[in-house]
User: Which sequence fits this backbone?
């Protein structure tokens, strides 16, 4: 009986030690935004955002050089300030949001590139296709808010070619240019709160 209790205590201590190694941060949704920019008719750009996303961020180091993250975006919540365009983007011509209800990024590695800057690599799944992408991350700082919560702010940027994920819809203009750009600039302004 004594051995059993001792073994259970050791297992408990080991589990506690493992849990202590993972500091979890939550998204402050009121101060976080995932948006994108795409060229329109070569001469201008259209901006949009996703109004619903969830995820987890785990990092023990104060400089976030060991960060691990997973973000899940709901493509049905796309918002470009034009309901007709948003409906088209949700359709099978683009995201096919009924068939593919998630856009997901899962980090696989992080590398420090400068003072508070990082290259975050991960698997990006969209439209049923998963490919590795790289994102530039800028850590704007970590503070204590007036309520005593620890907060950290980041800007995340990257560019993907939408054709690589099967989003190939387009039309050719009389000038020979395409109506919709193929490169998508991703911008995430993220504020995290330590749990």
Assistant:
């Amino acid at each position: 009986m004594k051995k059993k209790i001792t073994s259970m205590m050791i297992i408990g201590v080991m589990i506690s030690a493992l849990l202590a190694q993972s500091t979890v941060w939550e998204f402050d949704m009121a101060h976080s935004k995932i948006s994108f920019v795409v060229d329109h008719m070569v001469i201008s750009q259209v901006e949009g955002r996703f109004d619903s996303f969830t995820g987890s961020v785990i990092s023990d180091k104060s400089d976030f050089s060991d960060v691990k993250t997973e973000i899940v975006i709901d493509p049905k919540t796309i918002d470009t300030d034009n309901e007709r365009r948003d409906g088209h983007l949700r359709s099978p011509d683009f995201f096919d949001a009924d068939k593919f209800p998630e856009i997901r990024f899962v980090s696989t590695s992080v590398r420090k590139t400068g003072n508070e800057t990082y290259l975050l690599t991960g698997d990006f799944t969209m439209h049923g296709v998963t490919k590795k992408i790289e994102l530039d991350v800028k850590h704007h700082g970590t503070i204590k808010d007036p309520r005593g919560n620890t907060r950290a702010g980041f800007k995340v940027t990257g560019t993907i070619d939408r054709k690589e994920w099967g989003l190939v819809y387009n039309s050719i203009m009389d000038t020979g240019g395409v109506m919709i750009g193929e490169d998508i600039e991703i911008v995430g302004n993220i504020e995290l709160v330590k749990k």
Summary: Residues 13-21 have pLDDT under 50 and may be disordered. The CA atoms of residues 3 and 17 lie 21 Å apart.
